[in-house]
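Notes from the 1:1 (GR / supervisor)

We went over the backlog. Supervisor wanted to see one worked example end to end before approving the batch request, so GR pasted a single chain during the call. The sequence is below; no edits were made to it. Supervisor asked that the structure be written out right there so they could see what the output format looks like.
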Amino acid sequence: LDEIDLFVGERYIITVHQRAVPQIDEAVRRWEHNAGELGHDVGALLYALLDSIVDTYFPVLDTLSERVDDVQEAIFVQPDQSTLRDLSRLRRTLLQLRRVVAPEREVMNSLLRRDRPILPSGTQVYFYDVYDHIVRVLDTIDTHREVLGSATDSHLSLTSNNLNQIMKVLTSWSIILMSSSLIAGIYGMNFVHMPELAWNLGYVFALALMLAISGGLFLFFRSRDWL
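Structure output shown during the call:
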């Protein structure tokens, strides 16, 4: 972003900027090329300059639109922390751009509503064109911000859903292992009078019982789509 300040009088325009601004040369070229249509007054030159500056916003918005589309696609393909960082970075960029463009709309609105001798009536209609372009830019920025806000909510929802799915899997396996641990704990108690202690098939029976219960729980959780 480069700041350019304008001082406009009836017969002059003074521009103040720290670095070279290509839009100034473009404005002069447009003014000279369309002098017969626009006129030779300061209003025509001011329009050419403002129009040149505003026109540079549209390629930036096109690039941002492509980045917004890429981030939206990445959310549903491979959501990760880098996707969330890209979302936050794009939202900050759009907010910064809006902070620049929004005051320009107020300036243009002021120029159009007030009677200023530096703006002849013949060129005032062209400033409506610049005003419309600024409004379009702001509408596009707001649309992208809303889309990114929805994308952020979608990303958080997907992350929460994945976390819930992981918790389901861990909970299911914990229950399966706990059922086997319960049986092992019962047979590990130090009781003298336990029917299965003197049974030759007691060990096999305990293992089979653990396997049957674990397998039944596994099939139950799989049917509920928890595993």
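Supervisor's comment: The two ends are 52 Å apart (CA to CA).
Batch request approved.
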